[in-house]
Structures are given as C-alpha cells and as structure tokens.
Amino acid sequence: MSETVLANMRDYLTGALQPNELMWLIDELIPYAAMPEGTLKPYTMEEINARIDEAERQSAAGEFCDHEEIFKMLDEELGLTEVEKTYKTAV
What we know:
Number of strands: 0
Distance between the termini: 30 Å
Helix content: over 70%
Radius of gyration: 18 Å
Order of helices and strands: HHHHH
Largest sheet: none
C-alpha cells in the first residue's frame, strides 16, 4: 500500500473513531506490527470458501444476530436516548 493511501486511511480513522476506539485498534494492531515481514499469508480460495460455508451454516442454524439486532442491543446496553439515536443517525 502506498504511503498516501495509508495516510488517508489514518486521517479517516482518526476522524471517524472515538479515542477509546482508536486505543482499541492500536492494541489490536501492535502484535501485527511486531511480526516479521511476510508472516501473514493471504487466504486461499479454499479457506475463503470454507469461511463462507461456515457463516452460511451458522446463519441457517440461527446462530447469529443481524446488524439491526446488534445495534438494538448496543443502544440498550449504552442507554441511548431517542435524541441521541436521532443525532447519531443524522451525523
């Protein structure tokens, strides 16, 4: 990835995420930064297809929540008021 693309990604993330979210992301990425070059290998098509098959199995078995259910649970957990929800969707 070019330095320009990385800088744009950094600028987007720092503008879009809250400080605690940025800290979480940094904590998640630090182990990858310490890995030697070439440690991470791309997925094969077989691995991708296996992940898709597993997701479809879980979906058919009802083992997941769709995005609307997740947002509802988050709103309930965070205790957002109707005004905050309206503001959040408007921004």
